[in-house]
Design a protein that fits this description.
The protein is an alpha/beta fold. The chain contains ten helices and eleven strands. The chain starts with 5 loop residues before the first helix and ends with a helix. The longest helix has 28 residues.
C-alpha cells in the first residue's frame, strides 16, 4: 500500500508538534453564544475558498480542529452540539459522542459509489425532516467540498477531475487498496493544479445548492449559521507544503474557516405605511 513520502511525514510530524494553538479557537464560543436553529457544516471548506465564490459577506473564525475527527473530539469536550439533532454525510460521527439527541447517519444509505461521496441533498432533506418534526436545533453536516471533489453540472453531479478512482472509498466497507486523499496527493498521484480547480468547483456547487434551502429556513423564521469543521491544503508554500487536512496541525489554511449568520431581517418598510411619502421616509430618502 502506498504511503506518504518520508520527508513529508517528518514535516507533518514536526508541524503537529510546533503548530500549537497560538491563537485561541473561537468557533465553538461563537456557536455557544449564537441562538441558532440550523447549523450547516461544509466539510473541509476553507474561509478563502467560500469567500471567492459568493458576494455575500463571509466572516472568518478559527476552528479547534484541522480534521473532522479532531473537530468532533473538541465538540465532545465543549458540548457545543449537545442536545442537537444531527444529519450527517460524514461517517466520523459514528466514532464520537457529541451528546446529540439523535444522529441520522445519512452516509449509510446515500453513499454514492460512482462519486465516492455523499451529495448534499439527502443530508439537507434529513435536516428538514428533523425540523418538520419540531426539533431544534438541527445540524446538517455536508460532506462536499471534501475530497473526492465533485461538482454539479445542470442537475447532475460529476467528478471535478478524472483522478477519482484512487480516492473512491465506501466507509461501510474495508478497502485497503484505496488511498486517502492526503496520501494520494503527497505521493504525487494527483494532478494538484486540477485538484485545486476541482476543489473550488465543489465549493461553488455546494454553496449554490444550499442557498435555496437556507432561503426556505429563513422564510420559516429560523436562524442559520454556515461554517466548516476544517480547511484543506494543496502542497503550496502558503499551505505549509501540506496536503489534504492532516490531524492536529493548527495552521491557517486548516483552521481558518468561514462563518456566516443568516437571520430573518426585520422589514425596512413598514407594511402599514399608507402612501409613497411614508415609504420613502422609511427607506431613508426623506428627512
Amino acid at each position: 500500500m502506498t504511503e506518504e513520502p518520508l520527508a513529508y511525514r517528518v514535516r507533518k510530524w514536526a508541524l503537529q508538534r510546533i503548530s500549537t494553538v497560538t491563537k485561541r479557537p473561537d468557533q465553538h464560543d461563537r456557536l455557544a453564544k449564537t441562538d441558532w436553529d440550523v447549523l450547516v457544516i461544509l466539510d473541509a471548506c476553507r474561509y478563502d475558498a467560500l469567500q471567492r465564490v459568493t458576494s455575500w459577506p463571509v466572516e472568518r473564525c478559527r476552528s479547534p480542529g484541522s480534521a473532522t475527527g479532531h473537530w468532533l473530539e473538541e465538540c465532545e469536550r465543549t458540548g457545543v452540539l449537545e442536545g442537537t439533532h444531527v444529519a450527517t454525510g460524514n461517517a466520523n460521527y459514528a466514532n464520537w459522542n457529541v451528546g446529540a439527541a439523535e444522529i441520522k447517519h445519512v452516509w449509510k444509505d446515500h453513499w454514492n459509489d460512482r462519486l465516492g461521496n455523499v451529495l448534499p441533498n439527502p443530508v439537507l432533506e434529513a435536516a428538514n425532516d428533523f425540523l418538520d418534526e419540531g426539533h431544534r436545533p438541527v445540524v446538517a453536516h455536508l460532506l462536499p467540498p471534501h475530497a473526492p471533489y465533485v461538482a454539479e453540472v445542470g442537475d447532475t453531479w460529476i467528478p471535478a477531475f478524472p483522478d477519482l478512482d484512487i480516492w473512491r472509498r465506501n466507509p461501510s466497507r474495508e478497502d485497503e487498496n484505496k488511498l486517502s486523499p492526503q496520501v494520494a496527493m503527497a505521493s504525487g498521484q494527483v494532478d494538484m493544479e486540477r485538484a485545486v480547480a476541482g476543489y473550488h468547483a465543489s465549493v461553488k456547487s455546494t454553496w449554490e445548492v444550499i442557498l435555496p434551502t437556507i432561503g426556505q429556513w429563513l422564510n420559516d423564521d429560523l436562524t442559520v449559521v454556515v461554517t466548516a469543521d476544517h480547511g484543506e491544503t494543496f502542497g503550496r508554500w502558503r499551505d505549509w507544503k501540506l496536503y489534504g487536512h492532516p490531524n492536529r496541525v493548527h495552521v491557517r489554511p486548516l483552521v481558518e474557516v468561514p462563518w456566516i449568520t443568516f437571520e430573518q431581517a426585520t422589514p425596512m418598510v413598514d407594511s402599514a405605511a399608507e402612501n409613497a411619502q411614508e415609504k420613502l421616509e422609511a427607506l431613508g430618502y426623506v428627512e
